[in-house]
Amino acid sequence: MGNVPSAVKHCLSYQQLLREHLWIGDSVAGALDPAQETSQLSGLPEYVKIVEVGPRDGLQNEKVIVPTDIKIEFINQLSQTGLSVIEVTSFVSSRWVPQMADHSEVMKGIHQYPGVRYPVLTPNLQGFHRAVAAGATEISVFGAASESFSKKNINCSIEESMQKFEEVVKSARHMNIPVRGYVSCALGCPYEGTITPQKVTEVSKRLYGMGCYEISLGDTIGVGTPGSMKRMLESVMKEIPPSALAVHCHDTYGQALANILTALQMGINVVDSAVSGLGGCPYAKGASGNVATEDLIYMLNGLGLNTGVNLYKVMEAGDFICKAVNKTTNSKVAQASFST
Amino acid sequence: MPSLLSGSILEETSQLSGLPEYVKIVEVGPRDGLQNEKVIVPTDIKIEFINQLSQTGLSVIEVTSFVSSRWVPQMADHSEVMKGIHQYPGVRYPVLTPNLQGFHRAVAAGATEISVFGAASESFSKKNINCSIEESMQKFEEVVKSARHMNIPVRGYVSCALGCPYEGTITPQKVTEVSKRLYGMGCYEISLGDTIGVGTPGSMKRMLESVMKEIPPSALAVHCHDTYGQALANILTALQMGINVVDSAVSGLGGCPYAKGASGNVATEDLIYMLNGLGLNTGVNLYKVMEAGDFICKAVNKTTNSKVAQASFST
C-alpha cells in the first residue's frame, strides 16, 4: 500500500462490506450475477455441508473447563445458525478428557432443533450405550492412520481399535443409528511424520466397510498442503466415493483453507470446522488447531457455494464461547469484523 | 517436526494441474509490512533486517518507499536505508516512488528498480494519494518515462483489486483498465493487490480472467492480504491460473489500517510452506526466513502473524 492517511472513519465498516457487497448471496453491482456462473471454479460442488465440531473437538482442546450450562447455551446458539450437523460431546472417560466429563448432561440438556443432527463421539461400546441412554441418535468413532498415534491416543493398535469399532458399529446399525468414521493423521503424524496415502486408504476402507456412512479424513496436526491433500484423496477416492468423504483440516500451519479448496475441487462436499477456530494443538503449544467456521463460510460464500449457514449468527456464537473460555477468537473474519 | 517442514520429495505425476514450476516471491515486509506497523523501527534495525532477508534465497526484496515522511513516518529514513543495505548479487531491491521527486531521490540513494502504486478505486486513489486515478496515471507516466530512460525497470501495483474499503465491490473491468494503463506505459509487471483481504477464490478467479485477457500471466503478480484468512486459498487459485509471482511479508508484518487489530499481509513463511508442499521451486530457505521473522518481530515488539512460525517455535 502507498500512503495511509487517517481516513479510517470514512471507510465502510467491515460489517457493511460483508453485508452489502462481499457476502455472496446478497450480490451488489452485478459482481455476482448468474451469468457469471460460467466462471465458477471448475468442478466445485453446489452445496457444502459443514460439520461443526466446536463443542467437541474445539472445547476438548481448550484448557478452561467450560460449565455445562454454557456448553448447552453454546450449542443451542449454534443450532440457530443454519448449521445442519453439530458434534455435541464425547462419551469418553472423564479421566482422559475432563472437558467432556459432563457428556450426558450436555446431551440431555441441549434443545434438539428439527433439521439439525447432533452426533457424539463414542470410543467403545460402553460409551455408546451411555450416549444412547442420554438421547444420542448419531455417533462417531475415531480411528487413526498411524500406529503410534493410535497407541498413544487411544491406547491400542489400529487393528485393536477397528475391532472395538466393529462392535460399536454393529450395535449402532442394529438400532438404526448412523455412524461416522474419523481417520486422524491423514496427512501426517506427530510421532511418525509422513503417513502414506495407502495407509489412510486402508483404514478408511475398513471403517467404511464396517458400515460408517461417512469418513472424515483429518489433518490432525495441520501439516498438510494442497499437494499432500490431493495425493491422499486420489488414493482414498479409488476405494470410497467422494460423497462418503469429508475433510477435517487443522490450521496449525495456515494451510487449512487452501487444503479445503483442493478437496472441494476434487469433489468432496463435506467439511468439518470449529467456530472461532476453537481448540489449540496439543502437539505444538500455542499453535492453532481447528479451521475457523467463520473463515470457511466466508470462503464458501465467496465461491458462490450454498451452505445454508448464517455467517453473522455463527460469529455471535463464536463471540459467546470465546468470552466463556477467555480467549480471543482464532477466526480472521471475526477479528476483522469486530474490530472497527 | 523438521522433516515435515522441509517438504518431502513429491511425485510429479500428481502435481496439481496447471501449476507453474517456479514461483518468484516478492518480499514486501520491509516496505508494506513495516509501513503498517505502529512501532517506528530504527534505521540500523531495518538495514539488518533487509540484510538477513538477502541471505534467505529471496530474489526480490522491496526495501522502502520514497514518500514524504509527513505521510508515512516509518519510511522517513528511506535514503539511509537504501544506502545502508548490502546489495547481494542476484537479489533485486525495488523501492516505491509515488512521483518524480521520489524517483530522483531513490536513484540518488542507489535504487536500480522502482514501483508505482495505482488503485482500481477512485475513492481509494483520492484518499490514499490525494488524486484521481487519471491524475495518478499521469504522474506515473512521468516517472516511468524517466525510469525507462535510465533503464530502470518499473513495477506497477493496482490496489483494491478485489474490493475497496470505501466503495465496496470493484469490477474486474476496472482492475483491467488500470492494469492495462500501467502495463501500456511500460511497467514490466503488474501486482494485483487485495488491499483489504476481502477476496475469495471466486472473486480472484473472475478478476484474473478479466485482466488476463489484456495482460499475459507472465507479467502479473498477486498481492494478497490475509485479513479474512483467505490469502493462501486466493494465491492457490492464482497459481492454478498461471500466475507465478506472489507478494508476501515475512511474519505477516503490517496490520490493516481499515480494520484495527486485523491482520494484513500474508506471511512469507506460510506461503513458502504451501509452495514447498506443492513441490514448487522458490529458491527460498524457510528456516532462514523464520529467523529473519523472529528478528523483526522482536524489533517491533509483536508476536508473529505466521502460523508456521507459531507452530515451529512453540514445541
TrEMBL record, chain A:
Residues 48-315 form the Pyruvate carboxyltransferase domain. GO terms for molecular function: hydroxymethylglutaryl-CoA lyase activity; metal ion binding. One of its GO terms (biological process) is L-leucine catabolic process. It catalyses: (3S)-3-hydroxy-3-methylglutaryl-CoA = acetoacetate + acetyl-CoA. Pathway: Metabolic intermediate metabolism; (S)-3-hydroxy-3-methylglutaryl-CoA degradation; acetoacetate from (S)-3-hydroxy-3-methylglutaryl-CoA: step 1/1. SUPFAM superfamilies: Aldolase (SSF51569). Keywords: Lyase, Metal-binding. One of its GO terms (cellular component) is cytosol. InterPro entries: Aldolase_TIM, HMGL, PYR_CT. Its EC number is 4.1.3.4. It is an enzyme of class 4 (lyase). Belongs to the HMG-CoA lyase family. This is hydroxymethylglutaryl-CoA lyase. It comes from Mustela putorius furo.
TrEMBL record, chain B:
One of its GO terms (biological process) is L-leucine catabolic process. It comes from Mustela putorius furo (European domestic ferret). One of its GO terms (cellular component) is cytosol. It catalyses: (3S)-3-hydroxy-3-methylglutaryl-CoA = acetoacetate + acetyl-CoA. Keywords: Lyase, Metal-binding. It is an enzyme of class 4 (lyase). Belongs to the HMG-CoA lyase family. It comes from the Eukaryota. This is hydroxymethylglutaryl-CoA lyase. Pathway: Metabolic intermediate metabolism; (S)-3-hydroxy-3-methylglutaryl-CoA degradation; acetoacetate from (S)-3-hydroxy-3-methylglutaryl-CoA: step 1/1. Residues 23-290 form the Pyruvate carboxyltransferase domain. One of its GO terms (molecular function) is metal ion binding. Its EC number is 4.1.3.4. It holds the Pfam family HMGL-like.
